[in-house]
Structure formats: C-alpha cells, structure tokens
Protein: Pentatricopeptide repeat
Amino acid sequence: MTQKGLSPNLICTIVSSLYRLGRIGEANMLLQKILDFDFVPEHACIKVSDSAGNFDSANQFFLVLLQRGFIPNNLTYCTLINSCAAAGNVNEAFNLRDEMLRRGLCPDVTTYNALINGLCKSGNLDRASRLFHILHAKGIRPNVITFNTLITGYFRAGNTASP
Structure:
C-alpha cells in the first residue's frame, strides 16, 4: 500500500473521517482491506477504530493485528485501556494493564489516568484513591488530569471532603 502512495497516516485519516461521518461499515471494510493486504498499521488505526466508541471492535482489530505480528507499545495499550475504562469495563482495563506489564511495558501517568477515570465513573472511588496512592509508590508523578479526575469523581459522588 505504501508503494502506491498510501501512508498509514493517510489511511487512518480516511478511516477516522468515515467513522465521524457515521459510515461505520465503510470504515470497518477499509480496515479489513488494510489487513487483507498484510499491511500492519500503526497505533493510529487502533485509535481510529476506537473513535467509533466501540471498545469491542477496537479490541477485535487489536487481536487481529497481534496475530499479524503487530507489536503494541504504551500508546497502543493506553488507547485500549482508555476505551475499555470509558465503556465501563474497568476490570478488563486492568487486565490490559496487566498484559502490558507482562510484555515488559511500563504504564505511565496517562495509562493510570485512564484507569482512575474509569474507576471514578463506575463509582469506585475507594479503588481510585488507592490507585492514586500507588502511583506515588511506583514513582509516577500525578498530573493535573489525575487530580481533576479525582476531584470530579468525588464531586459527582457528593463527597467534597478530602479523600
């Protein structure tokens, strides 16, 4: 495909545009054609397939890529974890984090923010708070997103006292 002038970024941009226009079937068909040509796209296509808001399709696409030799990186896993946690599948998001660790990758603050966000949205503030404290033990420095996520979670739960 690259020999015909189609770069991974261009293909993923086209797929993303199709998803945004609600043309899910055409986007999925293009992703399948990419795979039929043994073209292993980069992280961007996983992000694109996730942009439709369907973790299951993004995860299926990810599994097919793994079978084709795709080597995921932190950004790939963070995208999947964020999608999974946002869909309310927090336990599956933690399973992905564990898989990430087994592959020798180190989750960063962005990955933990996605997990904390999923926990807060599911009402599991105690677990979110414990995970926040684990960040310090791991030497990962929380950022403004971490703090805003926790504050928002506690506020939505009606708990304005400090955790």
Summary: The mean pLDDT is 80. The chain has two domains: 1-71, 72-163.
